[in-house]
Design the sequence.
């Protein structure tokens, strides 16, 4: 089992310190969020990103595409243009850091109503351009299933299947267990062959991204099922520190949270 941790859980620390934390824990895999503040503030500093490369190459790294304030289905053409620019930048970054795959968020309708053909058309144009460049760079793009929201594309298993089959053999999937909740069996039935990466966390009171050991939904049988099916990808812990009882955890407390979840995952197999 390949267990990874999202760098976003340690968002308040410089990247060099995050690398040290992961080494201390013994983590060999990570999902890197370029929007970690230290990296984001320095991302156009070539000396900085080059210096970090030596550390990234010591890990098995997946990359999460920038998504804060972005929406590939936005009504605003400048926002849509920004999403494409950020995605193409991410593809170049993934190539530089030898990441094999990038997780993408689907679009959403800007208002709290179901997506229309217009939102889907904008999203597909975004995918067309992004996939063209990613395939040329030998980078796999993975669509992440979203939490259930009326205005979101990509929370419904049937819809995710439709999108993936539209881009068959081009686009793959990041399965977020906590986003899927009670739909996870349906996701397995429909799109298990497309799953090459995962996010995993606990669900409490139907809220996502709690520590896995606190989850009110037992994902153990689905983890086992995915492994038995032949899944070789990462189980990436994606925990939100805002979900924890204490407002601000120390570094040591955060490390303890991760270690307990890693031990839980390792106990499954």
Sequence:
């Amino acid at each position: 089992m390949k267990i990874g941790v999202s760098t976003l859980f340690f968002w308040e620390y410089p990247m060099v310190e995050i690398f040290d934390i992961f080494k201390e824990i013994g983590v060999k895999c990570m999902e890197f969020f370029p929007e970690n503040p230290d990296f984001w503030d320095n991302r156009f500093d070539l000396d900085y990103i080059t210096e970090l490369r030596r550390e990234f190459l010591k890990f098995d790294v997946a990359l999460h595409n920038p998504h804060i304030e972005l929406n590939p289905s936005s009504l605003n053409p400048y926002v849509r243009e920004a999403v494409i620019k950020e995605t193409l930048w991410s593809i170049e970054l993934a190539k530089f850091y030898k990441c094999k795959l990038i997780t993408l968020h689907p679009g959403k309708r800007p208002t709290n109503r179901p997506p229309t053909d217009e939102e889907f058309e904008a999203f597909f144009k975004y995918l067309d351009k992004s996939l063209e460049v990613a395939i040329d760079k030998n980078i796999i793009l993975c669509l992440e299933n979203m939490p259930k929201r009326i205005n979101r594309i990509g929370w419904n298993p049937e819809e995710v299947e439709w999108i993936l089959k539209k881009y068959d053999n081009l686009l793959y999937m990041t399965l977020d267990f906590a986003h899927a909740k009670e739909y996870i069996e349906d996701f397995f039935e429909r799109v298990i062959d497309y799953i090459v990466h995962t996010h995993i966390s606990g669900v409490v009171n139907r809220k996502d991204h709690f520590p896995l050991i606190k989850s009110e939904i037992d994902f153990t049988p689905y983890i086992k099922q995915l492994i038995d099916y032949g899944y070789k990808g990462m189980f990436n812990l994606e925990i939100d520190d805002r979900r924890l009882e204490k407002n601000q955890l120390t570094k040591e407390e955060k490390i303890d949270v991760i270690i307990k979840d890693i031990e839980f995952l390792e106990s499954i197999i």
About this structure: DSSP finds ten helices and ten strands in the chain. The chain has one domain: 2-268. The longest strand covers residues 171-176.
